[in-house]
Amino acid sequence: MDQRGSESVALDEILSELRQTFRTGRTRPVAWRKAQLRAIIDLVQDNEERIFTALLEDLGKHPVESYRDEVGVVLKSAKQSLSCVEKWMAPKKGHLPLLFFPASGEVLPEPLGTVLIFSSWNFPISLALDPVIGAVAAGNTVVLKPSELAPACSSFLAETLPRYLDNRAVKVVTGGPNLGEQLLEQKWDKIFFTGSPQVGRIVMSAAARHLTPVTLELGGKCPTIVDTLSSTSEIKITVKRIAGGKWGPCSGQACIGIDYLLVEKKFCTMLVDLLMKTIRRFYGEGAKNMKNMCKIINKHQFERLQNLLKDPAVAASIVYGGSVDEERLLIEPTILLDPPLDAEIMTEEIFGPLLPIITLNNIQESIEFINARPKPLAMYVFTKDESFKQQLLQETSSGSVTFNDVMVQFICDSLPFGGVGQSGFGRYHGKYSFDAFSHEKAVMRRGFFPEIEPRYPPWNDFKLKFIRLAYNFDYLGLLLLMLGLKRN
Amino acid sequence: MGGEKEETSSKPAFDVGAASELVGKLRGAFASGKTRSYQWRESQLKGLLKMTEEHEQEIADALHSDLAKPELESYIYEAAMLKNSCRLALKELKRWMVPEKAKTSLTTFPSSAEIVPEPLGVVLIISAWNYPYLLSLDPVVGAIAAGNALVLKPSEIAPATSSLLAKLMGEYLDTSCIRVVEGAVPETTALLEQKWDKIFYTGNGKIGRIIMAAAAKHLTPVALELGGKSPVVVDSGIDLKVSCRRIIAGKWGCNNGQACISPDYVITTREHAPKVVDALKQELEKFYGKNPLESKDLSRIVNSNHFFRLSKLLDDDKVSGKVVHGGEKDQSKLRIAPTLLLDVPRDALIMQEEIFGPLLPILTVDKIEDSFDVINSGMKPLAAYLFTNNKKLREEFVMSVSAGGLVVNDTTVHLAILSLPFGGVGESGIGAYHGKFSFDAFSHKKAVVYRGFMGDAAIRYPPYTKMKLRLLKALITGNFFAIIRAIFGLSKD
Fold first, then answer.
1. Which superfamily, per CATH, for B231-423?
2. Per the similarity annotation, which family is this (chain B) (predicted)?
3. Which of A111, A208, A310, A460 is paired with A263 by a 20 to 30 Å CA distance?
4. Mean pLDDT score, A360-366
């Protein structure tokens, strides 16, 4: 009781300080924003080894994976924001019709104020710092709550951010669901949440009380459609990309990770054979001998994944893998062939190293299959059929679509990253991060001259005629009317 | 939500079951792909345009019945604006539908990328009573342009317009994909229980919260066009006559102050205030005559609920003696004269909530710069206005006052600039629309990456080695020389 009381007092004080800092206007000049972005770059570069260590501890993540998916992502994002922020801050001119001459119209981005960022445990550094980059580039003050399920990374962030960034403007708070609840009771100018749809609902409901805008980066079952290919080299590349994309990033515990495959029956055997070989080469064989793969984050998730395989019909569909190392929380890459579609493994987001393969008679059936299910965050398609590509684009919906590869949309800074439907709403990355934390204020400047009398009552027929013509932007008609030359 | 309810025992109630069935039908229609074609969207937009052109008089009559809205206001603010919205969408739709090319970097070479707009699906639009024609159909224009199926729920507080919309839209538009549901709280609640792909609401913050909470259950994105207290700062050294006319046009000329972007209150210096009051009085008389309660150029108060709400604001002890012009009321006709109040205390009722009526408080400050603090100490409004010739003051206003939109030296006209986003911030709302922003409000911008089978970098895959780490670092930073060094094993780490 006491602890909760003192925690909420501390939160009130933190918010008070951040709001005060924002009111002073300190976070608005471009110099401040650039300084924060440079500080993030320094933070990551100075502490690379420590970051690798923390990620190894929380997730068993290999340094190459840590660089590729965490450190590298943050550096790239911060550097791009640093070089673009001034451009992003500039007002954008709006086109004004002649009727309003002389006047100017523009859209001026401004910070929202004090924002709250929740990050998740699977990419605990990049999913924490990437939104922070957007928030500070846009000139806001920030509270970051990293996930308590990745404690080493969480403490790392709590300890280092205040040393590098302006600690009167950017704060890290650590804690569990209790803290999350208390944070949600406060009024924020924006909440940015990365996590599960269930918690996403809670966040949005809490935000509704204060009319706080939210961005929800959620998840879903990201399908991978593999069309029947004929070229051996292309098949090999496809399999490498699938093997690398499914188990490489965080052992499948990724929001845009491949959840399941859709393959034609005639292609399936070849694909599975090659997949098994590739898995052995990349990751080793058997849970005890695994390398280059993260562990499952904790016992709870480990048991959840094990339970997915407990259903006898599901267990019977395992064609590769299935072994686990309970002590080290490792599950080997596991392939299932046509598990029952109503089993949990096919109705819930897997978020782990299990890969169901659903076989179809014809790859066209994949469209109906996908449309019968909630919209995913990403969809991957391996095919050379251009008309099939177009058909998929037109007839299915997802956060993003990638053809002939997996995961790479994440590092394209010029592409918006976000979901649709159950996979979330709002987006970020690159300029979209800046926009996510900005209000685009419309500004119109006019002079006192000229005055258009017909704007004002008392109303009469002439004024009505005038206004009709004005609204049609019928300048010639207006001229004639004014000269008394217009007839009805 | 107030308003009289009629007995409709002959019609079955629109309950949760009916709402669910309706959404199911619309989902089926959407799934057929019908609404996605350019032809369908064009035909519906043309339908809206034709509908408005062919029934202008009926629309004006309905607005007159609901609000005693002067014909010219009905024309400018409702019919003409909606027609312009349709025309712009028709002109630009092809361009809006085209995917946008996105740059790709060396890191993902070779690849190409684009952003493809797609409809969200089946959307719900809930509109307001004060501009019941425009605020119902303007979002509909956006929803159609973006290729969605939709349900429109017009406000029951403007019943003549609501039933006119139901009738006309049934005649002019594709009812397999576009439907109108009339009703009040029970019908709206039934609709809100359904899963929508977007909810677009125009109205007040209290209901806005209810809508967002209902949307949260289904993770439905929302746009909320709300309101607030839109301030007008009046500097000295300006053309006071022109300024006051523009203030009057924005306040009483817009549905008698019942508009989300109407000037709510004025702030000026103590010294300047008497001149402002005099100028306002003079122009008010020119516009509405000596008996404004009789003027046909002013809307009435929409219903008795709001009439009593506004009367209470005038009856508040804290403003007794502050009325310097107007104050007359006619309950039978639901009319209140344009009323000016001078020097009202900040804690008076009239300063605690959005007025949405023909009462204009004038606050005074010592220095005009102080007015920005006054504004920023309250909730962020939908609009804020400044009349000045002082460039420095103007720029300070633009930088430091946060509102949905700002206008310098005029009021409300930014609404007509379709190249500017129209929406609130903070308590005044979430999201924006008008012009292309309407199309965007009802679209999902899908990121698409095209890759080939060439150019596969082994460094992506395990087994991971130090060499791969070096190369990866170089590739991610896009540093050409670092890449060369890494390939040739010449890197420093």
1. Aldehyde Dehydrogenase; Chain A, domain 2 (3.40.309.10)
2. Belongs to the aldehyde dehydrogenase family.
3. A310
4. 97
